[in-house]
Amino acid sequence: MIQELDVDGVPTLLAPTGGPMRAGLTFRVGTADETLARSGITHLLEHLALAPLGLADYHVNGATAPVFTTFHMQGSAQDIATFLTSVCANLTELPTGRLEVEKEILRTEHSSRGMAATDDIPLWRHGARDFGITSYPEWGLAALTGDDLRQWAARWFTRENAVLWIAGKAVPAGLRLALPPGVRQPVPAASSALPQTPAYFVGGSRAVVLDAVVRRRTAASVFAGVLERELYRALRQDGGLSYQTTAGYEPRGDGNATLRALADALPEKQDAVLGGFVDTLAKLRVGRIEQADLDAVVAKREDFLGTAEVDAARLPSYAFNVLTGERNLTVDEHRAELKVVDTDDVHEVAREALAGALLMVPEGHRADWAGFAEAPTRSADTVTGTAYREKEGDGELHVGVDGVSWLGHGGPLTVRYAECALMLTWPDGARQLIGDDAISMRIEPTMFDLHPGAIRVVDSQVPADRQVVMPARDPERIPQPRAAAAGSGRREPVKRSWWEIPLMVVSGLVALVIGGGTFLLTLGMFVTETAESDKGWLWSAIAVGWLLTVILALPIVLLRRRRR
Questions:
Q1: What pTM does this model have?
Q2: Which residues cross the membrane (predicted)?
Q3: Can you tell me the mean pLDDT for 459-480?
Q4: How would you classify the pairing of strands 358-361 and 199-202?
Q5: Taking the mean position of all CA atoms in its chain, how far away is CA 310?
Q6: Per-residue pLDDT tens for 98-133?
Q7: Which of 19, 154, 419, 431 could form a disulfide with 443 if both were Cys (CB 3.0 to 4.6 A apart)?
Q8: Following CA atoms 441, 403, 462, 142 in sequence, which dihedral angle do they give, to the nearest 10 degrees?
Q9: For the chain, the helix, strand and coil percentages under 3-state DSSP, each to the nearest 5
């Protein structure tokens, strides 16, 4: 059984384990609580809390997710007590002396992380807010100060906003959770950037991915297992089209859960994988649920619930439910709910999932043929304002008092100042505005006939707390119109040898003399009568004359081409 205790005012969960002792301190704060302009503040604070602990001979780590941040460790009771006590002390008195060092570590972590197939899905579903922020770089890091972090810690890293879980015999002796008082923070409301669903977008991955938001319930978790079995059978076992076919179910903390499924594909098999993926979804949507799949998924869950370590394994998810205010089930209640799930329940989840689905398809593919609407890549309206023509092409930038719009190829794109999630600014005058709906627009002054005051208008209208200053760019990375770029190209002039010009002059004169004489001789052969006995040698002379003319003119052509 999982016991519910209290340690220094922090709700505590304790469950026995037959393995090594482990524990975690979880807070109800994550990236979804940030703004895009201050993104990275929770992750940075997590790093600062762990940095003074240095090297350890035991497993210790931290993690920042959309709605929670956790510090966890595996080791002896004394090691766990020391670790968690130190983490709380560091959260209360932040070691800001390592602030800039940890910022650089986070930038390195982001650059070396690589791109996952599902990274872009949050921004397409939610935009540049709350749950969509995980799709973007941590642009807020550079401007964060020690005071910013202390204020963030005082609001979110408190006794009332934390849960401690321990897999072991008892609470370690000497453990102290010296956290400030606060309040339990609710999970942020999820925004939407999709005007209609089901929808699709073209991703940069070779995989096909389904993203759906469903009501959190046992039948929905069972549906994820059934979907995974169907995809495996259709795309790997029978079709030999995919290697990886997965499906997962993750509670979001607000009464809903995210359901995702993925199937990878070789470039030449993407059409077949997309078609097979959509066929599998359609099969489940119309209620063709295999009872054998349902039984297999339920049996697997029941096997897990029957293990000796089930309570210890459930501790992190149990703590998540305590933090978010959602109901925790006992093992017996889990079993009871699993037993009553039938094919009708799974069919209902399938219809719910597909009604609000977001499908990512590989580049060069579409899904409108399957009933998925294209997710918006353009804005529905524009702003009025001063128009500035593009130096190349027929595009036009409108700078108004309430926003900016781009009209041209790929447009219209509009970001209103009141709905601007972030504006990146460069010292050379470039600006990139990202709207709450994830519409992004870049203003490069070198590419427009901009009035000097246009950028000042934009800067004055976007709130200062949504502006992030970027490092200066290498001049070669600043875009230039093609004509200007070609005109500014610096090339080393080709140096002539001293003999080139005399050779060209002599060759030209001799070619002119021989060519002129040959031309007159050729003309004479057609306008005057010539004895048959003389025609043979005259035509031979003409052929030689023209050949010499070409040979003499050849140095002039080659030397001029070399010069160019």
A1: 0.82
A2: 501-525, 537-559
A3: 93
A4: parallel
A5: 35
A6: 999 999 999 988 877 767 888 999 999 999 999 999
A7: 431
A8: -10
A9: 45, 20, 35
